[in-house]
Glycerophosphoryl diester phosphodiesterase (Mesobacillus foraminis), 245 residues
Amino acid sequence: MVLTWIFAHRGFSLAYPENTMKAFIEAERAGADGIELDVQMSKDGQLVVIHDEKLDRTTGEKGFVKDLSASELMRLDARYKFKQTLVKKEPVPLLRDVLEWLSNTSLQCNIELKNGTFPYHGMEDKVIDLIRELKLEEKIILSSFNHYSIVHVNRHAPDIETAPILAEGIYMPWVYAKSILASGFHPHYRYAHDEIIKKSCQHHIAVRPYTVNNESEIQRLIKADCSAIITDDPAKAKRINDDIH
Ligand code: G3P
Ligand code: CA
């Protein structure tokens, strides 16, 4: 039986503010094997960790990530719905700060390039340069809904693992992943059927479904030998994983 890695989606986002250092630290504490995070670019070209292009949902501020400098973004408070329970402010982190912390852990990291709405010119190369500077090539999987970015990374940094994200079911996704030189794909869990996982494994293509929080679905995907699952609740997924193995 394949060991399925547990990736904490936006960190331990069930219990802590998504895409913050707090959520990443707590994911590690909960026993996750890796974290997933979302990257965008600030007005001054810095890589910042935040999911939405708009600031309102997670920081309560108006406007767009792309219109603020990194220092302005880092002054925002990303605690949103956890303001009542968390005393300390949680800034929007720089990717550099997260990766420097991660380099001292045993965690893997799935960096999602969030450039489907705004193209963030040059973002792929900035991410590649940072991974190289911190010597994290072995610990990173780059993913995106923007498959042109996946191809760009595969051409310019073939040693870094990549995976297109698939929101819908497609025919023979392992063939598609190979066709764009990716070593895996990240399907919505509803489209990660057992047969697709089996065929992908046979073709040495990793399958890491998102975002799986339901106990029976987590069990199914682990039993089907998924390479990893991406979940908001790494504590629950780890418990289920440990029970199965
Ligand atoms: O990478 C999988 C998942 O994170 C993609 O969806 O919207 O949560 O970034 P989203
Ligand atoms: Ca994501």
